[in-house]
Amino acid sequence: MQKRTFFQAGIAALIVITAIAGASATEKLTGFKSETVDLPFGDRNFSGPNADAINNNCLSCHSAGMVLNQPAMPRAVWQAEVDKMRAVYKAPIAEGDVKPIVDYLAQLKGPH
Amino acid sequence: MRTLRVETSRRHFLTGASAAGISLIASRAFADETIDLGLPDGVGTRPIVKNYLGKGPMILQRTRPPLLETPFEVFDKDIITPNDQFYVRWHWANLPGEINADTFRLAVRGQVNTTLNLSLKELLAMPAVETVAVNQCSGNSRGFFQPRVAGGEWANGSMGNARWTGVRLKDVLDKAGVKASATAVRFNGLDEPVVPDGPDFMKSLSIDHARAGEVMIAYAMNGEQLPYLNGFPLRLVVPGWYATYWVKMLNDIEVLDKPDDNFWMAKAYLIPDTPHASMKPGETGIKTVPINQMVPRSFVTNVKNGATVSAGSPLALRGIAFGGNTSVRKVELSTDGGKAWREAKLEIDAGKYSFRRWTAAISPTKGANQILVRCTNSDDSAQPMEANWNPSGFMRNVVEATTVTAS
User: Fold this and answer.
1) Measured distance CA(B139)–CA(B9) in Å, rounded
2) Contact present, B81 and B161 (Cβ < 8 Å)
3) Could you report the per-residue pLDDT of B305-346, keeping only the tens digit for each?
4) Which domain holds residue B15?
């Protein structure tokens, strides 16, 4: 009896899954619609008097939210992040802009 | 042809006001719906966006390139994650403005007898296969790492479970005829670096893995063509492996005669070659390997941490579990800190790589009740009681704790 109840419950669950997942396993996609998109560029800039370097160098690859959502981390971690962006991801950051960017990050997201 | 646009009012407002600085934008943005992810040490508030290129409500982790997290309550509704709330993660912001379904071609080249340029129509004409499988970001739950680490600060929603339809990678490779010199297969998509010389995102699998039969080139997700943000028109499906291998907008397959030394295999997505990919902060000299197979996880989905419940009456619990690289053997609960465990009931099995619903009931006692949930997979790998740590925030699978207060 218990076995039967469990079986019935299983069938009911299967039907629900099939309904939610859309087409059943036997239906087949017959074609594709082309896609045209307009991707958003970014939602925020960095603020303050020392934000020029970070705004000019960082926002072409990623929006500011990537940084603003980071937890507080030591200056050395921010230095390593900026070094990684230059060395690995080839961010064309001028030598003279590195310190202002690290300073800004350490001030904004350093342990206080 | 369909055109997807971001809600223009929001976009124009944000662009226009950007010069005014963070505080103003933040206050306006936060006036919309937000969510607090409850990350340790804070900075867990994120906007909920409701129309990001056709997606439903999603947690906005990053606008560009898009990182969108699935709100956790979605996982309580069904073991299948709907396309419009399936999480999104891209590495580079140069994504094509248009993908033409008629002219799109998938190249198969390198150590093969015949180079192929397959149209979507040709792929549709091949034998179709289907599998339900979990796709999980390597860094899912990174935001819970302590000490915190840099990266996409996800809560637990950079994962999803879908029914994938497509063709076997093996069949496509056989069609091209793999040469005896083949050792690895590399996958590339339409996404491109923003900066010159930036490393194009590519991943590879060993030739044996590629030809074993489970790896799929998917053209459908939950019965529909893939959403643009989830990799239209084709993505690799690598059941049991982390999502970094599930290359999106797949348009190039290259069979290599030597191991792949490209940046994304040799330098990125590396884990400590230790149990649970765990190490101590600052520890050096640790051997690393490319991240690979997933590990078991389980979650309570119907009761939130911090919820208030009735003391003395049974509390019905349900949730999801997945075994990682194999099926779920059992899900257990503990309400005494992990001393005693009771098995939950497992619901329908949709396949070894799928989410599996579990149900159970506990009797909360007055005061705080901590509920622990632990999945053990069919290889007898169980979730650990202690959280792992590594500097990239990969492979978190600690036993999750949900605390409720009964009154």
Assistant:
1) 32
2) yes
3) 999 999 989 999 999 999 999 999 999 999 999 999 999 999
4) 8-89
